Each structure stands twice: as C-alpha cells, then as structure tokens.
Amino acid sequence: MKRISIIAGLLLCSWAGFSQGSNEYSSGLKFNLDSTGNKYMRAIIWDQIWFRSTEMNPGTMINGEAASNSTDIGNRRLRILLYAQISKRYMILTHFGINNQTFTNGGAASTTGTGGYGAAKKPGMFFHDAWNEYAVVLPGESGKFSLSIGGGLHYYMGLSRMTMSSTLNYLAADAPIFNWPLIENSDQFARQMGIFAKGKYGKFEYRMSVNKPFATNLAPVDSPTADAAVAVDNSGNTKWSKAGYFEYQFLDVESNLLPYKVGSYLGTKKVFNVGAGFYMAPDATKTSVAGALRKHDIKLFAGDVFLDMPVGTKKGAVTVYSVFYDYDFGPNYLRNLGIMNVGVADAAFTGTPALAGAGNAQPTMGSGTIWYTQAGFLIPDSHDKPKVRIQPFGAFTHKNFDALDKASSQFDIGSNFFIDGHHAKITTQYSTRPVYTTPGSSSLKGEFLIQLQVYL
C-alpha cells in the first residue's frame, strides 16, 4: 500500500494545468447524407485502458501461482457506436466492441493455454445495442409532449440514471456495477431485447420498456427449510419483464436522443434532476425447499438525484449523484463479481478463503438494499485555454444484503485529469471492497487504478 500511495502522489503532483472540453471535437465524426444535415450518420469510438495494482482475496491463484497481490494492464472497453438519422422520425443504432481483456482472460471463446490462440487473446467482438426507433410525436409537434417508440437489443432498462449511464463521461473511473443488477445473467451486457417508449412532457422525462429476458438455468441447492433457501437465476420458460424510469429535470433539460445518461457535464449545463425507476420480471429465480422447487419474481426499485452545476466565474463545477436501490431477487440471493478478475481459486490454500471467491471478487448485488453516493469538484481555472483540468472526486457505498449477517461500507477516491474534457482524460482512483470470510465477518482490501481514456 506504501507503493500505491507513492505512485498516486507522483501522478497528482505531475499535472500543473487544467482544461475543459475539446474545441476541435465539434460534432465529432458526423457524416451528412444530404445538404441540410437532417440526414446523417455519426460514429463514436472509444477506448479505456486500465493499469492496476490490486490486493487479492485470500485463497487466490494467478496462472498456477499463489498470489496475494497483482499488477496488470487491461482493456476495459473498446467500442464503436454508429447511428443514422435517415429522416426526422427514423433512426437506427448499432453499438459493438469488446470488454475486459486482461493478461489471463477475456479472450475469444475456446482460447486456452499458450500460443496464438492462448487464453486472453483475440477477444470476441459482439453487439451491445442494435435497435430501430421511430418518432411518433416530434418535439414541438404537440406542445410540450414528445414520444418515440423503438425495438431491438436496447439499453432503455429503467431502474436508475446510472442503469442507463454513458460509459464515456463517468465522474469516477467506472460504474459500481450493481447499477446493472442483471449483468450477463438475464441480459446481454446490461441490455435486453424488447420494445421501448421514451419521451418528454416539458421538464418531465419518461422511459418504459417491455422485454424478453435471456434465459437462465442455474440449479438451486436444496434446503431443508424456506428460511435457509437461496434463490438462483432460473427463469424456465422466461416471462416478459417490465422496466421504467421517470425523471423531473428542474433546471436545464437534457437530451434524450440516445439513452446514455451523462455522469459529469464539467459545468457546461445547469442540471438538477430527481428520478425513480423499476424493473420487474415474473418467476425469474428459483429455490429448492425439501425437494420442491419454488419460483420467485425479481422486483427492483430505485430513487436517485443528480446535480451538476457551474460554480463561480472561473469555470469551476460541482457534480453530485446519489441513488438508493431496493432489490428483491428472492430469498437470500447474492451474486459476487470482480471486474477484470485475473485470479482463480487456489486449491492448495490452507487458510480461510473469501466467500466471494478469488481475485478481486466481492458481494456486488443481492436481495437487500444499496446506497451509493458520489461527488466531485472541477477546480476553477481562469485561463482561456488551460492545458489540463483537475476534478477530484469521492464515492461511498453501503450494502445491506439479506444473505450476509453484516452490512458493508466501501469507498472510492481519486481525480480526473482532463486534457480535452472527457475526450482525452486520465483518471486515478483508489477503491476499497469488502472481503467476507464468514457471513458476519469482513475486512477491506484495496485497488489502485489508472485509466487512460480517449473517445472521438
């Protein structure tokens, strides 16, 4: 941890200036298809590289060797998004790329061992989004009301602002992951296939969808009593899910052309929003009690508030986001995840391993409640064209899951260094995570991260 502190200090001291946004970016990679500019195609391309130093959970092995810590570099996201507005009413969007490639995993299907198709190599590219959309009522056509309807593999998944967040402009280095409570179980990387409706009425924005969740089939462990039963994702003949998010935008009205919610505007807008959302899926999990299978609904609710405001006369800004999640996946449901986890279980470990598993895994989502709050401050600058701008931030998470006897708290602290706003930035962050060895006993381990992000 001393080494981590020294690295962080050097990075923080090495940047002397600051900046906000790129004057050269303009409308980005936009290609007009007619002389008016109403018909066009736009491309957005981004890459996020992570350098990390991580304390491993007890009982971890990396590539055949016991490990208590790890340093690595990995590709968190490499994405391309294309959308075309071929009339005022009709739009088509596709979004594809790779995620989470490390030196031990994240490669294409069936890549193992050593060599040209060894483990972690040649990752598989897949579609994150693919949908068509039609504007039934354009803004201004019917007073304050607007309505668009679309269908396909989409991101209008309701629940919270961060559930539909853009990965290009986070305040912290990344999302906390529990904002995507179905991730890679009954969804495809936070998306489901279905039909959605979106629109506004003045400062009120709405998003609703009906979707067919991807099938899940985990086998529940049989329990002698209902109190001891543990729900797992098993949807059988999957029933349709319903999702919605409703938000009132008190100050500036945000664009809803795309579903991706901005994490930090860097003082370019005055935003104060209050929102609430839900996701419900009937008979989506199962338990086994004395040999009898029981089905359970997934019922998820959230309420959040978002503030992003310029401060003073020298281009400073404050950003605050707070969200409360109330999750019900069924009795004692608990899911452990580790982002870009390079560790696996060490069969020869003689101590007490972490309940969440090896590497950087932690209890991430489950039946219970989660409160998450983040805040950041863009340091003011009086220069017309500052070289780099600095935005320190912090985040706090409190999780209280039914399956664990003890609630947990964890934090993130770091800073963004904006070279060209979010288009080119460096983020440094230190994060803690809870490590349970029994349901009632936990400690904290840490991870130091440097992220390099570029998007065009």
Feature tags:
mainly beta, disordered N terminus, three-stranded antiparallel sheet
How is this structure best described in words?
The chain is mainly β and 456 residues long. It has one helix spanning 2-13; strands spanning 29-32, 40-55, 60-62, 65-66, 69-85, 90-101, 126-142, 145-154, 192-201, 204-212, 222-223, 232-233, 241-249, 271-289, 292-311, 316-328, 334-337, 344-345, 362-366, 368-378, 389-401, 408-418, 424-438, 441-455. The protein has a 16-stranded antiparallel beta barrel with strand order 2-5-6-7-8-9-10-13-14-15-16-20-21-22-23-24. A three-stranded antiparallel sheet has the order 4-3-18, with no helix packed on it. A two-stranded antiparallel ribbon has the order 17-19. The longest helix has 12 residues, at 2-13. The protein is globular. Residues 1-20 have low confidence and may be disordered.
Structural class: mainly beta
Q: What do the pLDDT scores average to?
A: 93
Major beta-sheet overview: 16 strands, antiparallel, barrel
* Unreliable residue runs: 1-20
Supply Rg: 23 Å
Number of strands: 24
Strand content: over 45%
**Tell me, what's the shape?**
globular
Element order: H for helix, E for strand: HEEEEEEEEEEEEEEEEEEEEEEEE
For the largest sheet, list the strands in their spatial order.
Answer: 2-5-6-7-8-9-10-13-14-15-16-20-21-22-23-24
- The rounded distance between the terminal residues' Cα atoms is 35 Å
Number of domains: 1
Helix content: under 10%
Protein name: Porin
Keywords: Signal
Signal peptide: 1-21
